[in-house]
Amino acid sequence: MEDMKAVLLVGGLGTRLRSVVSSTPKPLASVGDRPFLELLVGQLSCQGARNLVLCTGYLADNIERELGDGSAWNINIEYSKEPHPLGTGGAIKFAEPLLRQESDFLVMNGDSFMEIDFQELIHFHRKSGGLATMAVVRIKNEMRYGTVRVTTANRVSGFTEKSEGDSTGLVNAGIYVFSRRLFDHIPEGPASLERDIFPKLLEHGVYALEQNGLFIDIGTPEDYARAQELSERLGQAVSRKQTQGNSN
To answer: Largest CB tally within 10 Å, which of 21, 41, 151, 180?
Structure first.
């Protein structure tokens, strides 16, 4: 972790959460006594990460004022401020100048938390030899997220769109390890990592590692309220690794 940069995607508009968090960027929404984004930064720091790149956009100055240079967490933070909304894929492409020296790098969504051992995910990625690795989690009512189809060899074979129903399936947890070859597959300009990029990467090797720890995002008022209820548990999870084989 000390030798790998971690990229946090924190530039989204957060429109679905505006009814309850109207004056701050979504990643800075308070959960318990701290901004949600500080949970992610603290988790990375506790597991040895020392170099972060924050892809900002909407209300970017608020995020930079809150986190500064990262010294409060014993890390170094660089900022990649997109000039206009670029989507998750476009934001990573725009940050390429800060990642040119990386053979591979970690990427996390700034509005979700997964209890995970980052080192285990990185080791799995390097062993697989693929272009990308994603953390996935099995949840009920996955219709809001869509599902990830995975073979017995842990290779991603496809994606299923959001649909109605009350089934259980694997969903993308928003944590990835990418080879720097990823940049060859992202066009300049706006692009969605999930909709535009991942489907085109499958032939180059996308793998999934299932996780069993606590998972939550704050993308909707309902899930944000749930995060508040779990704030104490989230705080404890920041400094605890969750390996693949463990349960909640």
So the answer is: 41
Chain CA centroid to CA 198, Å: 14
Q: Which residues pair with 101 in a beta bridge?
A: none
Distance (Å, rounded) from C-alpha 208 to C-alpha 132? Answer: 9
Q: How would residue 20 be classed by pLDDT, with cut points 50, 70 and 90? A: confident
Tokens of residue 134, six digits? 């994603």
Angle of helix 36-46 relative to helix 60-67, nearest 10 degrees?
50
Is 162 marked active-site? Answer: yes
Q: Is 65 helix (H, G, I), strand (E, B) or coil?
A: helix
Distance in angstroms (rounded) separating the CA atoms of residues 152 and 31: 37
From 50, 47, 46, 21, select the one nearest 36 (Cα to Cα).
21
What are the tens digits of pLDDT across the range 25-43?
Answer: 999 999 999 999 999 999 9
Classify 177 in phi/psi space as left (phi over 0), alpha (psi -120 to 50) or beta.
Answer: beta
Residue 207: C-alpha distances to residues 32, 46, 49 (Å): 34, 26, 23
Instruction: Please check the confidence at residue 247 and state whether its pLDDT lies above 50.
Output: no
Pair of tokens at residue 226: 């749930």
Nearest partner of 237 among 31, 18, 57, 84, judged by Cα: 31
Of residues 5, 81, 93, 162, which has the active-site annotation? 162
Tens digit of each residue's pLDDT (9 = 90 or more) over 84-126: 999 999 999 999 999 999 999 999 999 999 999 999 999 999 9
Residue for token digits 């769109």?
161
